[in-house]
Structures are given as structure tokens and as C-alpha cells.
Specification:
Number of strands: 12
Radius of gyration: 18 Å
Distance between the termini: 44 Å
Strand order of the largest sheet: 2-1-3-4-5
Order of helices and strands: EHEHEHEHEHEEEEHEHHEE
Amino acid sequence: MNAASIKVASRSDAMSHYPVPSGAFDLLIVEDDAPLADLLAKQMAAFGHRATIVHDGREALVTVASQAFDIVILDRILPVVDGIAVLQRLREAGVTAPIVMLTALGQSISKVEGLNAGADDYLVKPVDPDELNARLHALARARRWDSDEGDTLRSGDIIVSPTKFRAWRAGKDLDLPNIEFKLLAEFVRNAGSVLTRPMLLERVWRYDFEPTTNIVEAYIRRLRIKLTAHGQDDPIVTMRGVGYMLRE
């Protein structure tokens, strides 16, 4: 199954295996460990969410083609089709629902790989159900914020579409991967204001700790290359010892 064959289901198609009162999130849990998947579903049902469980990557792709979900909880290591491949295919097919990658791999490189592929958050197992529930609500709030902003954010000749996950400068498509897109969107939302390194780590990478790598600097460098690829001035100002700012 490729991206082109995935038809994104409408919200009216959504179903669940753990029914609870209306107004909750419809979750898809993609986890090959059946007892863990069942436990997660029951824990989330206790918070008022509905959960559908599938156990491999291909089943996840088939399910998304026939049902709509508010949030997807996706294991990193899956049989048949790997979690990263599932993530990429869903994003290529236009699935915009928040996706939380859940995995036993805690290394920074694994987290960056998942976020770059299109994940909105990344949690290491075992996950505290209260924390997972809080992350789900945070993702839902962020997605509503994107919708409230409308289809475009603009600063100078830079345009960002949160709903389409696309960005342009001077009319040229920047073709940004997930993290670079989120980084630029954060800058455009806060044009003229300084964003500190901890602020960017929390808002873009969902890190609540200071990593040992220079991940922020590395991604800002990549973003600058794309923003200046056609001879434009660099719009990102380094405020030494403080953070970064996008010129208004």
C-alpha cells in the first residue's frame, strides 16, 4: 500500500472498540504488544477517550483509510510495516491528525527521526497515563490553535500554512520536512520576538529537558539555507546568549 492508495476517512466514519461518552478523543493505538495496547486503551478510556487497536503497520494504514481519528498513538517498532514508514505514508497521504510516537527507543536520534517523519510528539515506554493524557490534550489544543489561525501565517515574504503543512518564501515552495516546518511556523507566529533555546525545544521538539546535542542550532542552520536559497537575506537573527528572532 502506498500513500496514493490511502483515502483519508471523514470524521463521520470513526468507530471504536472502547465506547465512552461523546466529546472525547477518538484514538487509534498502533501497538504490536497486545496486552500493552489493551492496557493503554483502558487507561485512556478512563479519561473519557475512545480507542481502536491495531497490531501492525499495514493494519494501521488500512484502518486509517476507513476510519477517522482525532489522534494516533503509534509504536516505533512494528511488524509488516515499520512505524516510521507508517508515519511517512500517513503524512504523504494528507493525514493531519496529531501522531504520538510511542517507543522503547529513548535515544535523541530516534526521537528526531520520528519527529522529522511527521510525529507531533514522542514518548518513551513505559508511559504514565496521566502524562499521556496531558500530551493528548496539548496536541489537541495546538491543532485547534492552528485551525483558529486560518490557513496562513505571514511575516514579510514568508507564508506558512499550518493546515497544509507547507511554507513559501517570495512565492517559492520551501519544501520543509516536519521539524523545519514547525520551527519556521514558530518563528512566524512570534516574528519580532526573541525565542530562547528552551522555548524552541519545548514548542517544536516537545523536549522538557536540555539535550546534550546542538539540535536547535543544527536545524536553524538547515532552515537558514532554505530560506536564503534564492539570494534572499537571512531573516533569522541570532541574539547571542539569548536566542533567535525572525525579523518582522
